[in-house]
Design a protein that fits this description.
heterodimer; A: 480 residues; alpha/beta; Rossmann fold; 16 helices; elongated; B: alpha/beta; 7-stranded mixed sheet; 9 helices; globular; disordered C terminus; P-loop_NTPase (chain B); PRTase_dom (chain B); PRK/URK (chain B)
C-alpha cells in the first residue's frame, strides 16, 4: 500500500497535464505559464489601474489564496461574519471553471482542475472589473458533477463595499492580482492540508482513499508546487494555520473597516491623511468655498481649518518617551516633542498657514519657496530662503491648495536637494485634488500629506473643483 | 564564514521553528506597505478606544497623537512654567472645543464656489452658548470665543463647603438658554459631583439633556460613571481619561489644581477664597 503511494507520488513529480493540453500534447509545464504571465503583464501595464476622475466609492478588493484545504473558505467566512454591517460579496474562482468539452469529459480522470488554464481568467477579470466599477455581474454556476456550466442559471452578484476573491490561483494572473487592494495567502502545512483533503473527499464526497491520493499526487501537489506556491510571493500578508488564526482575521477585519471609512486615495496611498470630518469642519468648508462670503469670514474660517490641519500634521512627528511627576505626586508616562522642526511655506498662499504654525510652535523657523509660473511651458523656481540646517529638521511644507502637484513637486525636490530625507517632510493642505495627490505620492511615496478635504478633480484650466477659487487672492484680499 | 557557522544554523534551529507561533507573517519585510499599514491600523484601533467608551457611547475621547500626548506631558509636569502651562493647556483646550463643536447638529446647504461649481456642505447650528463652571472652566472661554465669534457665555459657581456636599451659589445664564445647545466647560472632571449639579441646573432651566455637550481636558473614570449614569443622553468630550481619584478626591496622575496653575494663584500660601459676586 505504502509503496504504491510512493510510486504514484514519484510518477507525478514529472510532467503533468494541464486543463487545455489534454489532446496528448505534453508541452513543458514550466514554459507555458511563464509565457502567459509575460503576455498578461504586458497587457496589465498598458491598461490604467484606476480611473482617478471617478467620484464613486471604490470597493475594497481582497484576494485570498492558498493550497487546497488550507482554510481559505474558513478565513473568508470569518471575514464576512465580522464585517456583517458592510456589504461584502464573495467571488469564488471555482465558478469560473471552463466547461469541459465532450472529449475532455470522457477522460475527466486526466483533466487537471488545478491548472491555471482550467479557469476562464478573462471572464474572471471582467467580473472583478465590473464589480469594481459598481456594476452587478452574473457569475456562472459550475456543475461539479457534469463539469459544465449551467446554462439555465447565474448567480447575481451586486456591487458592494468589499469584494473577496477566493481561489487557489487568484494570484497567478497579474491582471487579476493588480485589481486587489490586499492579497492574503493562507499558509497551512502540506500534511495538514492533505489530511483535511482526504477526510473531506472520503467522508463528505464518498470517494475511496486510493483515488483521492492518486488525484493529489498527479494533479494537486504538482500544481501547488508549480503555480500556487510561486504566487505566494505576491501576498501582502501570510496567515499561518488558516481558520484557527483569530488574531490574523481580526487584524484584517479592522483594517478593512478603517479602509472603508476612508477616501479612496487613502486606500491607495497609506501616507495620505484626511483629518476626520465633522459637521463643524464641513460647515467651515461650506463657508470658505462660498463665493459670496466676506473676506473677513473667509480668513476667519480658513484660519480655523488651517489650525486643525497644522495640529493634525504635528501629530505625525516622531517622539521620545518621557516620564514626569504631576503635582499630585503621581508619575505620568508621556512623550517629548520632536524639537528639530521647521516650516516651509510656498509663497504666496502657503504664507497664510504660518500664523497657525507659529500659534502651535513658538518661535519655529519658517523658510520660503517661491515658484513662479512662467507662461504655459513649465515652471521656474525664482526664490528660496531656507534654514541652513534644514537637512537635520522635520519639515512642514505649507500650501493650502494642492492642484496639479507640479509646484509641490518642485518644492519637495528642492527640499530633498538640500538634504531633507523624503520621510521627514509633511505636506499640509486645506484642499487637495486627486491629480495632485497622485502626482506627489507616486513621486515621493515616503512623504506624508495631511489635508482637510479631497476635492473632485481639476477642470480644464487646472483649477480645483469645486475648490475655493484663488486662495491667495481671497485670503490676502487682492481679488477685487 | 560567520553566516554559515552561526547565523544560518541558529536560524534553522531556533528562529525558523518559532515561525509557527506567529499570528501573521509579513513577506518582503519593510517594503510591504500594505502589511505595515494593516498592523498600524489594528494597533491604533485597539489603543484608540478607552474601555469606558465601549460602555458609554456618548463619551468621546479625542484621537490621541504624539503631539497631544506631548502637550499632556507638559501640562502634567509639576516643573512646567506657568507660561508653558497656559500655552499648552490653551492648545489642548482648542482641540477639545473644536471636537465638541463637531457634535452639534447641522442642516445641509449648497453653495457656489468661485470656480462656478456646486459644493454640497452644511450650515452650522446657530443657537449655541457656552457655560463655564467657575473658576477652572473660564480657562476654556477664550478657545470657545476663538472658534465662535460673539458666542454668549453663561457662568455657574459651585462652592465646596467642607466634606459634606457642595452648594450652588451663583449662576448667570442667557435667558433663552432653553432654546440653545450648551457647551458646558470644565477642564477637570473629578468626582462628577459639581458637574452633576451644574447639569441639573441647566436641565431645570429647560435645556434638553441631549443638547448639552460637556467639554473636559482630563476626566476621571469615577466622574464619567457618575455623569453618564445620571444623564445618559449628555455628550462628554475629553482629551484624556486618567487612572482614577486619590483619597483626597484629586485626579491621578492628573495635573494638580488646574485653576491655580492656569491663573497663577498656586504660589500663594493661603487658599484663595472666592467671594461670591453680587
Amino acid at each position: 500500500m505504502e509503496k504504491e503511494i510512493d510510486a504514484v507520488m514519484e510518477a507525478a513529480s514529472g510532467v503533468h497535464f494541464s486543463g487545455l493540453r489534454l489532446d496528448g500534447l505534453l508541452s513543458s509545464p514550466s514554459a507555458s505559464p511563464r509565457a502567459t504571465t509575460a503576455a498578461a503583464a504586458a497587457a496589465a501595464s498598458s491598461s490604467p489601474q484606476f480611473d482617478s476622475s471617478s467620484s464613486i466609492q471604490q470597493p475594497f478588493v481582497i484576494g485570498v489564496s492558498g493550497g487546497t484545504a488550507s482554510g481559505k473558505t474558513t478565513v473568508c467566512d470569518m471575514i464576512i461574519q465580522q464585517l456583517h454591517d458592510h456589504r461584502v460579496v464573495l467571488v469564488n474562482q471555482d465558478s469560473f471553471y471552463r466547461g469541459l468539452t465532450p472529449e475532455e469529459s470522457e477522460r475527466v480522470q486526466e483533466y487537471n482542475f488545478d491548472h491555471p488554464d482550467a479557469f476562464d481568467t478573462e471572464q474572471l477579470l471582467d467580473c472583478i472589473e465590473k464589480l469594481k466599477a459598481g456594476q452587478s455581474y452574473q457569475v456562472p454556476v459550475y456543475n461539479f458533477k457534469t463539469h459544465r456550466r449551467r446554462s439555465d442559471t447565474f448567480r447575481q452578484v451586486n456591487a458592494s463595499d468589499v469584494i473577496i476573491l477566493e481561489g487557489i490561483l487568484v494570484f497567478h494572473d497579474p491582471r487579476v492580482r493588480n485589481l486587489m487592494n490586499m492579497k492574503i495567502f493562507v499558509d497551512t502545512d502540506a500534511d495538514v492540508r492533505l489530511a483535511r483533503r482526504i477526510r473531506r473527499d472520503t467522508v463528505e464526497r464518498g470517494r475511496d482513499i486510493d483515488s483521492v491520493l492518486e488525484m493529489y499526487a498527479k494533479f494537486v501537489k504538482p500544481a501547488f508546487d508549480d503555480f500556487v506556491l510561486p504566487s505566494k510571493k505576491y501576498a501582502d500578508v501570510i496567515i499561518p494555520r488558516g481558520g484557527e488564526n483569530h488574531i490574523a482575521v481580526d487584524l484584517i477585519v479592522q483594517h478593512i473597516r478603517t479602509k472603508l471609512g476612508q477616501h479612496d486615495l487613502c486606500k491607495i496611498y497609506s501616507n495620505v491623511y484626511v483629518i476626520q470630518s465633522t459637521f463643524q469642519i464641513r460647515g467651515m468648508h461650506t463657508l470658505i468655498r462660498d463665493k459670496d462670503i466676506s473676506k473677513h469670514d473667509f480668513v476667519f474660517y480658513s484660519d480655523r481649518l488651517i489650525r486643525l490641519v497644522v495640529e493634525h500634521g504635528l501629530g505625525h512627528l516622531p517622539f521620545t518617551e518621557k516620564q514626569v511627576v504631576t503635582p499630585t505626586g503621581s508619575m505620568y508616562t508621556g512623550v517629548d516633542f520632536c524639537k528639530k522642526l521647521c516650516g516651509v511655506s510656498i509663497v504666496r498662499s502657503g504664507e497664510s498657514m504660518e500664523n497657525a504654525l507659529r500659534a502651535c510652535c513658538k518661535g519655529i523657523k519658517i523658510g520660503k519657496i517661491l515658484i513662479h509660473r512662467d507662461g504655459d511651458n513649465g515652471k521656474q523656481l525664482i526664490y528660496e530662503k531656507l534654514p541652513k540646517d534644514i537637512c537635520e529638521r522635520h519639515v512642514l511644507l505649507l500650501d493650502p491648495v494642492l492642484a496639479t502637484g507640479n509646484s509641490a513637486n518642485q518644492a519637495i525636490e528642492l527640499l530633498i536637494e538640500k538634504g531633507v530625507p523624503e520621510s521627514h517632510i509633511i505636506f499640509l493642505n486645506l484642499i487637495s485634488a486627486p491629480e495632485g495627490i497622485h502626482c506627489v505620492c507616486k513621486r515621493f511615496p515616503s512623504l506624508k500629506i495631511v489635508t482637510s478635504e479631497i476635492d473632485v478633480a481639476l477642470n480644464e484650466e487646472f483649477r480645483v473643483i469645486p475648490g475655493m477659487g484663488e486662495f491667495g487672492d481671497r485670503y490676502f484680499g487682492t481679488d477685487d | 564564514m560567520m553566516y554559515s557557522k552561526f547565523v544560518k544554523p541558529a536560524f534553522d534551529d531556533f528562529i525558523l521553528p518559532t515561525k509557527k507561533y506567529a499570528d501573521i507573517i509579513i513577506p518582503r519585510g519593510g517594503d510591504n506597505h500594505v502589511a505595515v499599514d494593516l498592523i498600524v491600523q489594528h494597533i491604533r484601533t485597539k489603543l484608540g478606544q478607552h474601555d469606558l467608551c465601549k460602555i458609554y457611547p456618548n463619551l468621546y475621547v479625542i484621537q490621541s497623537t504624539f503631539q497631544i500626548r506631548g502637550m499632556h506631558t507638559l501640562i502634567r509636569d509639576s516643573q512646567t512654567t506657568k507660561h508653558d502651562f497656559v500655552f499648552y493647556a490653551d492648545r489642548l483646550i482648542r482641540l477639545v472645543v473644536e471636537h465638541g463643536l463637531g457634535h452639534l447638529p447641522f442642516t445641509e446647504k449648497q453653495v457656489i464656489t468661485p470656480t462656478g461649481s456646486v459644493y454640497t456642505g452644511v450650515d452650522f447650528c446657530k443657537r449655541l452658548c457656552g457655560v463655564s463652571v467657575i473658576r477652572s472652566g473660564e480657562s476654556m472661554e477664550n478657545a470657545l470665543r476663538a472658534c465662535c465669534k460673539g458666542i454668549k457665555i453663561g457662568k455657574i459657581l459651585i462652592h465646596r463647603e467642607g466634606d459634606n456636599g457642595q452648594q450652588l451659589i451663583y449662576e448667570k445664564l442667557p435667558t433663552d438658554i432653553a432654546d440653545r445647545h450648551v457647551l458646558l466647560l470644565d477642564p477637570i472632571l473629578g468626582t462628577g459631583n459639581s458637574a452633576v449639579q451644574a447639569i441639573s441646573l441647566l436641565i431645570r432651566k429647560g435645556v434638553p439633556e441631549s443638547n448639552i455637550i460637556f467639554l473636559n481636558l482630563i476626566s476621571a473614570p469615577q466622574g464619567v460613571h457618575v455623569v453618564c449614569k445620571a444623564f445618559p443622553r449628555i455628550k462628554i468630550v475629553t482629551s484624556e481619561i486618567d487612572i482614577g481619584l486619590n483619597e483626597d478626591f484629586r485626579v491621578v496622575p492628573g495635573m494638580g489644581e488646574f485653576g491655580d496653575r492656569y491663573f497663577g494663584t498656586d504660589d500663594d500660601e493661603q487658599q484663595v477664597v472666592l467671594a461670591p459676586p453680587q
